[in-house]
């Protein structure tokens, strides 16, 4: 390596070290102890848990069917995963297939209401809220001086916080309704009642429940959704206090309070009369 190349590398390393030192000096880790930063950490973890549990709510449903070609009941099983499109979740025999009816033409449900769209919107809200919390937390810690000095940054933060509050409100309600519909459509009794191949021999029921789906993650995701709603709604107040709107009104309120509490008395007003003989009356 030539001397000039070595000098260039050394200069670049020194600049990088200087930038790292300046960044470390300007970092304000104490902001995470304040409500503004601490709530962002809560939003980060709650959003992560909300969409993680929502996408991991897949499960299996199964039931037995009496077949004409075997003395033992045949186990039929269906599996569903995110985004929980039950129309594309086929029911298949796990051992042999009944000769009198092919169940692979059937799915867990023929209608799913708005389960798919509700699940996708809830996960979208969780992922974007998760990413936004990371970005804003970095700004709070490393670029706090710019956040305080640039007027539009707190305004943007306030607007986005309000938008996410609305998203969590709408998404949590829609997702809770979707989870209720999912529980209904994946219940073994509901599946057996809606499956045509379970009704044979003068409407005799040939199917019986075997395994019920697990809804634990979905229920937890609903709870976390409303938890996110509470945290984001509460954060509106703390972000509002950082905006120029609030600071201007607070300053005007302080001036008004000071003027009310400390009025100017007549004794403090000095009126000096100046008489000039040349003035005409």
UniProtKB/TrEMBL annotation:
It comes from the Eukaryota. One of its GO terms (cellular component) is synaptic vesicle membrane. It is a multi-pass membrane protein. It is found in: Membrane. Keywords: Glycoprotein, Membrane, Transmembrane, Transmembrane helix. Residues 31-244 form the MARVEL domain. Belongs to the synaptophysin/synaptobrevin family. It comes from Brachionus plicatilis (Marine rotifer). This is Synaptoporin. The chain crosses the membrane at residues 121-143, 150-175, 218-240.
């Amino acid at each position: 390596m030539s001397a000039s190349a070595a000098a260039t590398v050394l200069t670049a390393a020194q600049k990088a070290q200087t930038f790292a030192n300046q960044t470390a000096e300007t970092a304000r880790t104490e902001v995470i102890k304040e409500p503004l930063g601490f709530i962002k950490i809560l939003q980060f973890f709650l959003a992560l848990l909300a969409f993680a549990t929502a996408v991991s709510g897949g499960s299996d449903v199964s039931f037995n069917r009496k077949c004409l070609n075997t003395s033992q009941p045949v186990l039929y099983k269906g599996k569903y995963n995110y985004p929980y499109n039950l129309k594309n979740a086929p029911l298949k025999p796990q051992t042999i297939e009944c000769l009198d009816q092919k169940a692979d033409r059937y799915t867990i449900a023929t209608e799913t209401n708005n389960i798919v769209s509700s699940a996708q919107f809830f996960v979208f809200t969780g992922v974007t809220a998760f990413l936004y919390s990371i970005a804003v937390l970095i700004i709070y810690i490393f670029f706090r001086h710019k956040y305080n000095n640039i007027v539009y940054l707190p305004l943007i933060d306030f607007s986005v916080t309000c938008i996410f509050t609305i998203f969590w409100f709408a998404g949590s309600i829609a997702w809770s309704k979707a989870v209720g519909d999912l529980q209904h459509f994946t219940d073994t009794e509901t599946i057996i009642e809606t499956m045509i191949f379970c009704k044979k021999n003068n409407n005799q029921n040939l199917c019986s429940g075997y395994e019920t789906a697990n809804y634990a993650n979905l229920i937890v995701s609903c709870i976390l959704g409303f938890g996110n709603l509470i945290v984001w709604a509460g954060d509106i107040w703390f972000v509002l206090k950082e905006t120029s709107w609030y600071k201007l009104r607070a300053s005007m309120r302080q001036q008004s309070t000071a003027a009310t509490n400390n009025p100017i008395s007549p004794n403090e007003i000095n009126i000096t009369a100046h008489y000039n003989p040349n003035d005409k009356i």
